[in-house]
Model the fold of this input.
Amino acid sequence: MSKGLDVGAVLPDFELPDENGTRWRLSQLQGSDAMVLQLGRGEHCPRERAHHRELLKLQEVVPVAFTTLVTVLPNDLHDTHKMKIATGAWWTFLSDGDLEVQRTLQIDEYTDPHHAATVPHTLVLAPGLVVERVYCGYWFWGRPSADQLWQDLRDLFRRTKADFDPTTDEARAAWRRARAA
Done:
């Protein structure tokens, strides 16, 4: 059973190197935005590449939608970079070569005797690394499509952004109050 991947939990602020060796804290990458965090199985997995190709549908819209997309792989820098290149992704890929994320969250894939694989999870995180939605993709169909993530993010923003619908009386009044201050 995973640890700390419950809706409402705050994800640890892991600090990991990107595919170029630059270290990042998850909170630095997230800022005040929402985040889709892909905890991948590993570079060796063809299902991982297929799911990342599905996520490509989001990479052009997340920067303008106040959302960050990040992948963490249980691989060294070389294999992490190899996966990013192989999928055509632009977003940040982080290396969990020391398996800190895998051990902390207890998501090691104990059924794989050949690789230090992670049971793949996709997380939708509200600002502050708050777990909003969790998908377990051990079986490929457990991984979310770009459309499912779009719906999850719409629901998150609808709940957390007072001006999600700026035509409401409440949103107009809040804008007037802010402008008068």
